[in-house]
Design a protein that fits this description.
Layout (H helix, E strand, L loop, with lengths): L1 E10 L12 E4 L6 E6 L4 E6 L9 E4 L14 E6 L5 E6 L8 E5 L4 E6 L7 E6 L6 E6 L3 E6 L5 H4 E6 L4 E7 L6 E6 L4 E5 L5 E5 L1 H7 L8 E8 L7 E7 L5 E6 L5 E7 L8 E7 L4 E6 L3 E6 L8 E2 L27
Parallel strand pairs: 1-21, 1-25
Antiparallel strand pairs: 1-24, 2-3, 3-4, 4-5, 6-7, 7-8, 8-9, 10-11, 11-12, 12-13, 14-15, 15-16, 16-17, 18-19, 19-20, 20-21, 22-23, 23-24
Length: 339
C-alpha cells in the first residue's frame, strides 16, 4: 500500500469564502494558479488566482446574471463544474419556486448563456463535464436522478439523452473515460457508490457504506464518509475512491479491481492536526489530489511514491500546467426565464 505524502499546503483560513460554508471547489484545466469555489449561501461562484495576494476573488459568476447578488435575485448554487479548456461553466441550484436550474456561463466573457430547468424535480447537487468532451454533461440531484446531456442540441428536451435512477439522493458524480465505453459513478447522500455504463445504461457495480468501511479497515461504517470518485491514472478503465473517517484521522484511497472488488491502495499521511476533508479535486495528468479541509487548509497530495515530502506555505504556481484541447462548439439552451 502506498503512503501518500503532502507536497504542499496553503492556509486559506482568512479568505472571504470562509464567511460562508464552502461547498465545492474546482481547479482550472489550463492554468495551475486558478481555481473556483462556491457557497450556497451567497449564490456565487468565485474565481481565485494564486498569483494575486488577495483575500477577495478576482471574478465571480451568479445565476441572476447581475454583478450585485441580492436576496431577491439570488439562486443558491449547490455544485458546479468547468469544461475542458476552461471555456464554459455550469452550475446546479437549489429548488426555488418549483424550479431548479442548470446555469451556463462563458468563462471568457462572464456572460450567462442560458439555463435548463425541466429535467430535475429537486435540488441539483452534482454537475460534471466529460473530461475530454466539452459538449457532454451529466447532472444529479436529490430527486435521485442522473441526467446525461448533449449540449450541442438546441433545446433542453433534445439535449437530454439518458436518465439513471440512483434510488437514493445524489451527492457527487464522476466520469470514467478509460473503460471500453464511458462510465459514470455517483456517491449518494447515504454514502453508497454506484457505477453505470453510459452507452448501455446498465449498472456496473454498487458498493455500500459497509463495504467501503471494510475496504478502509474501519469497524464502524457510520463513521466513514465517501469524498470523491475518479478515474484511475493508468487508463485501466476502473474507478478510484477517496474516503475518510468523520474524525479526520483516517483518509484512504481505494481502487476498484478487475473483479469489481474494492481494495485499499494508499494511506494519506497527514502530519497536521486531524481535520475532515470537505471537498477534493483529482488532477489526473499529475496523479495528484488537491483537498480542502474544514480548517481552511488546501493540501496537494501525490500518488507517486517517489515524490518529495512536505513543503509548507507554497502557492499554486508550484503546480505543473495542465493543458486540454479546446473546443468552440457549444449550444446551451437559453430563454428569458432565469431572469
Amino acid at each position: 500500500m502506498l503512503i501518500v505524502q503532502c507536497l504542499s499546503m496553503r492556509d486559506m483560513s482568512e479568505t472571504e469564502w470562509l464567511k460562508n460554508i464552502l461547498l465545492i471547489f474546482r481547479c482550472s484545466k489550463v492554468s495551475p494558479a486558478v481555481f473556483y469555489s462556491s457557497s450556497s449561501e451567497d449564490g456565487r461562484i468565485n474565481v481565485w488566482d494564486g498569483r494575486v495576494n488577495s483575500v477577495k476573488p478576482v471574478q465571480f459568476f451568479s445565476g441572476s446574471g447581475d454583478q450585485i447578488v441580492t436576496i431577491e435575485n439570488k439562486k443558491p448554487i449547490l455544485n458546479f463544474d468547468v469544461s475542458p479548456g476552461d471555456q464554459f461553466l455550469c452550475a446546479g441550484t437549489e429548488l426555488m419556486d418549483e424550479d431548479c436550474y442548470l446555469f451556463f456561463w462563458d468563462l471568457r466573457s462572464s456572460k450567462l448563456l442560458g439555463a435548463y430547468w425541466e429535467s430535475h424535480s429537486d435540488d441539483i447537487t452534482a454537475v460534471k463535464f466529460h473530461p475530454s468532451k466539452p459538449n457532454s454533461l451529466i447532472s444529479g440531484g436529490t430527486d435521485g436522478i442522473l441526467n446525461l446531456y448533449n449540449l450541442l442540441e438546441p433545446t433542453e428536451d433534445d439535449a437530454l439523452l439518458f436518465s439513471f435512477n440512483s434510488e437514493s439522493s445524489v451527492e457527487k458524480i464522476s466520469w470514467n473515460s478509460g473503460a471500453s465505453s464511458d462510465q459514470v459513478a455517483c456517491i449518494t447522500h447515504t454514502n453508497d457508490m454506484k457505477v453505470w455504463d453510459v452507452t448501455s445504461g446498465d449498472a456496473v457495480v454498487h458498493f455500500s457504506r459497509t463495504a467501503v468501511a471494510g475496504a478502509m479497515m474501519r469497524s464502524n461504517p457510520d463513521a466513514v464518509h465517501l469524498n470523491e470518485c475518479y478515474e484511475t491514472p493508468k487508463g485501466n478503465g476502473k474507478f478510484g475512491l477517496l474516503a475518510c473517517s468523520l474524525s479526520g484521522e483516517c483518509a484512504r484511497f481505494l481502487q476498484v479491481t478487475d473483479k469489481n472488488e474494492l481494495k485499499p491502495r494508499a494511506i494519506f499521511l497527514n502530519d497536521s492536526p486531524p481535520s475532515v476533508i470537505q471537498t477534493a479535486e483529482y488532477m489526473s495528468n499529475e496523479n495528484r489530489w488537491i483537498t480542502f479541509d474544514e480548517t481552511g487548509l488546501i493540501r496537494i497530495w501525490s500518488l507517486d511514491s517517489s515524490s518529495k515530502p512536505i513543503v509548507q506555505n507554497s502557492d499554486a504556481r508550484q503546480l505543473s500546467k495542465i493543458t486540454e484541447k479546446r473546443s468552440t462548439r457549444f449550444k446551451p439552451y437559453s430563454t428569458e426565464k432565469p431572469n
